[in-house]
Amino acid sequence: MSGLAFAALVLCLHITAGESQQFTIIVEHSQINVTAGADALFSVLPSSNVRSGSWIFEGRTVAQWIGQNEILDNEYRSRVELFTSNGSFLLKSVNTADSGEYRVNMVPTNGSQTLATVTLRVTGPGPVTGVAVVTNDSTPLENLDTIALSCDASGTVQTRTWFKDNQPIRENGRIFTSPDRAKLTIISVNRNDVGTYKCIASNSFSSDAGQTYVEVYCKYTAKTDGNCTLGSGAIVGIVLGLLGVGLIGGVSGWLVARKAGGIRDPPQSQYDTSVNSGRKGTLDTNTVNASGNYENLSRIEQGARNKAEDGSSTYMGLVLENQSVYSDLKSSRTFGLLTCELFPQMTSL
Q1: What is the mean pLDDT of residues 265-274?
Q2: How far apart are CA 112 and CA 153, in angstroms?
């Protein structure tokens, strides 16, 4: 009996020793449920000393180690903390994109490698990405147009904050946002609205920002540093208009002066134009006949006299006695008033 008992004890010890040589990985939780923004601890415990190991997520090696030396994926470097003593690792600020199956593979000092899996389930909003600010009008006219800026983003957005030139925007009756702050409206834009508009979209664990530059245009061309400048086409049009004003003013002044009797006839010729006598003609009021012709003058002189009296002759040497109207048109005050009346748009520049 004693021999049989000893044989049984040896067989039992042999089986136990064989089982102790099998390497295993004990997983604390095969499934981890966390909310977005929290940390997830993948806690494991190997059955014996480990020479090396790695954590793999969707075919990508997130973390690996050999002895005490660790290698972390660049995109996970700021979010992963690896514990080389037992192979556990901590994933920080998880989001819905982190949900899935994580596989740990370990190589013991003695024995064959083995693996285990842990499933992560993340509940809550996903990360905010791809924030962009879009305007409905890229060329708004000053004091005429209303623009709307939209803050578009991917993921679950909980809050949006608007800035102009890195300063928080203060809403008023002309500048306001929609209830969810996804849209910013500016009524009747002016030069003070020129600048960079930024929107920061965020949730409890992530945020992203987008921006755009808003320019406000005058009726002729765009502003430069908040000031209106005229384009070449507008300048040519204004110059031509002013030349037209000057021409009209000159003609008007001449007509007024002529009507007022301020035009003096040019001096008479000092030379005799008679083709018959060739001598200087004289005027004798007693020699005017009933038809109104001067009998002692040549035909040329008579024709010239008659045309002069009936006002049908052309005067080339007119002299304006009274130039006050034309002078007023040339004065800066009158010129400015005409300009404002003919080009009211310029008064806003």
Answers
A1: 47
A2: 49
